[in-house]
Fold this protein.
Amino acid sequence: MSRIKVLVVDDSAVVRQVVTALLSADPDIEVIAAVADPILAIARMKVQWPDVIVLDIEMPRMDGITFLKKVMAEKPTSMAALAAGAVAIIAKPKVGLKQFLEDASEDVVGAVKAAAHANVKMLRATVKNTADVIMPAADKHSAMIVTTERVVALGTSTGGTQALEVVLTSLPRVTPGIVIVQHMPEKFTAAFAERLNSLCQIEVKEAQNNDRVINSRALIAPGGKHMLLRRTGAQYYVEVMDGPLVNRHRPSVDVLFRSVAKCAGANALGVIMTGMGDDGAAGLLEMRHAGARTVGQDEATCVVYGMPKEAVKRGGVEKTVPLSAIGREIMQQLSGVMVR
């Protein structure tokens, strides 16, 4: 029986050294390489494809989530790592790292062996639900009256962490209320929102149930939960809820966009950005049919031109712009007019 081929990707030399040593001690495992970042990993994988990748999430040049999704798109691979498709998640402490890894050696080795035998093709074979499993589509006669309360809905996936930083840091202090779905694992959206909040003039936070959608605030759907826009009177708020995967995602961009179509209609701007697959394409078209303005990120500035491409194909995108212009389009929503 051939040994399990493992690639270790971590910017910490200590982690690479310790994980390589503890995995190599098991006769069933062979560490084929240990590299400092995903760019080096991609080059190494052109020579030999691993059975399992042990992957850090916070690394220079490319974050672990973006790398993971690129790998899974090219060839299903078992992942003992920190993102969608992972077989196991092992959280590292900030101090005492070497001792922690040595103490957790059985867990790490066990996770790698479990990953090697996981049926990752099932990630693609699962039933692909639509937003219908969460809420019905908007009625044709339920268009919202245009008001001065504007809402911006952003949906993104692969490459979206960097793209959202570009967009949100370009916004001035006063903006319309913003609701965001970024495909990201559970427990990581809070830290992501906190980081953006430290960089932006507007408030950025991980959404909690019943949070108000107000000017100068961006709410990011928490990983592992769907987020819907709701309305009471003239006020918007969000509902954060469990539910089945939609387009194999939770949170799903389609779920958010459908709720925005129903609750905001012509008072909304929908933006679909870089990402793999088609989540958000159907919802953006529903928003456009409800009277919302819609924007798609252009191919040249997308890390992966999947979600915007599908939205354009279906007729949901009214205007295509580069990443650097999306902030400008959002600000035009203040006056209710998009620049052409």
Summary: The longest strand covers residues 29-35. The mean pLDDT is 83. The radius of gyration is 21 Å.
